[in-house]
Amino acid sequence: MTMAARLLRPLVTLFGLVCVWWGIARWGHVPPYLLPAPDAVARAMWRQRALLGDSALTTLVETLCGLVLGVCGGGALALLMALSPSVRRWTMPLVLLSQAVPVFALAPLLVLWFGFGMASKIVMAVLVIFFPVTSSFADGLRQTPADWIDLARTMGASRWRVLLYVRLPAALPALASGMRVATAIAPIGAVVGEWVGASSGLGFLMQTANTRFETDLMFAALLVLSAMTVLLWWGMDLMLRRVLYWLPVRHEGP
To answer: Cys-Cys link to 126, which of 65, 70, 219, 228 (CB 3.0-4.6 A)?
Structure first.
C-alpha cells in the first residue's frame, strides 16, 4: 500500500463521518444544544483556541507522565514476576484487582488523597495502563520458545543472562503491543480524573462547557482530545517501529 493510499483512507472516512454528522445536525431536527453542526464546533474551536490549547497541554502532560510511570512500573513488575514465580502468585491478583474496580469509583479517592493538581490525574492514568503493560510483557516473557532457553542454558548462560539476552528480546513485541494499547487509553485516566476534580485540562473544560450548555465547545474539546490521542498513538507506533527495527513489517492487503 502506498503512502498516499494510507493517508487517503482515513481522510475519506473522516470526511464521510463529518458529512453524516452535518446531515443529522441540519436536517435531523436535532436541537443545537444536543448536537451542534460541524461549522459551529469549528467556530467555537477557533474562538477558544487559546483555552483549548492550554487545556490540551495540561492533559498531554498528565498523559505522558502517566505513560512513562505506568510503562516503567508495569515493565519492572513483569520482570520480577518472570524471575520469581512466588512474586507472580502474590502480585498478579493485585494487578487484576486494579482493573476490577472501575476507575470512576477510584477517581474521587485519588483526588482526595493526591489533591486537585496533576498528581491525582497521573496516578489515574498509571492505574488505567498498568494492567495492559504488565500482562502483555509478562505473557511475552513466559512464552519465550523453550528451545531458545534450552540452547542458552546448554551454552552455560546464567539465569540473568537468559533473561537479558533471550527472554527479554523475545518479549519485546508483546511489550510493544501493550505500550500501544496503553497509549490509546492513557488519556482516559487523565480525563476521568479531571472530570472528578480539577481546575484545568480538557476533561475539566468539557465538564464546564456541559454545565453551561456550551455543547459546541464541549465537542471542540472532544475533537482536540481525539486528535491528541491519535497523534500520541501514531508517535508511539512510529517510535516502536524504529526501536524494534528487526521485526518483520506486516503489509496490509489492497
So the answer is: 70
